[in-house]
Amino acid sequence: MTSTPPDTESYTDMKGDVEAIGSHCQMEYCHVLDFLPFRCESCRGTYCLDHRTEYAHKCAKEGEWARRKAALNNDTKLPAKPSLYDHDQQCADPACKTLIYTSLVTGVHCQRCNRHYCLKHRMEEAHDCKNLKPIGARPSNILQQQRDRGMSALAKLKVWAEEKKKKDAEKQTKKTGFLGLGTKGGNAAREALAAANDLKRTAKGEANIPQDKRVYLYVEASADTTKAKFPTGKFFYNKDWTVGRVLDVAAKSLQVQNVNNRGGGEEEKLRVFHVEGGRLLKFSEKIGEPCQTGNMIILLRGVGSGEAPDLIDL
Length: 314
Known about the structure:
The protein is an alpha+beta fold.
């Protein structure tokens, strides 16, 4: 009787087809068997590692999955790239490329030429406003109203300045007569010197300003044109500072609301009036040119530009 020899094979028969483990790449001329295939979410095809991207297998429905996802988020299309013309403006100065009215940079509207500028070119002198033709026409009656309002404020200031000088002269005369000091001219000089020394001793300012660069001034805020927490004060400034910078510092010291940098009409802007010179100072002037130690400047609101006529001509 013969016996069946034992099974000596060392492998196990697989149940099913080996191709069931993975999938063939659907890319033409490829068809490689990939055990970890990739599915395209746009065309639903199956591809190998090399052809998994839409660009690699030249997907016929390229971008379909992104559109479906956007639709699920109630967003039918991707937002457009912000446009300079739709969102921002550029400073009207031809040589300036600064974008204004953005989240980081504000803009200033010039009422005179009706253009918009950055902070650097906001002053009329900085963008040569007097040589620009205004954009659009402004009714002549509005210009006349602004001019009349400014002239009225200056006329009131002229009366105030004359009364103040008269009172100061009377006060000086009474003091001179009471003391019985020499001649009138000598007394006036001594009084002026004493007043200047008192001004220098009590004036406030930035300590880093050199002594030879300081100009000591009386500063007031006109009661009928603005409201100030401190209506008057004694301060010193650097002679080389512009009137515009002095105005900013003086308004802060007297706690006067200063909206010059926010645009708007002349009725809200502050100007600097030099009592001894009898005129409004331009923002671009250096304070040390028209003013001397002991002079007085007044902060006024709504009196027009620095090209208004001098009070001595009123």
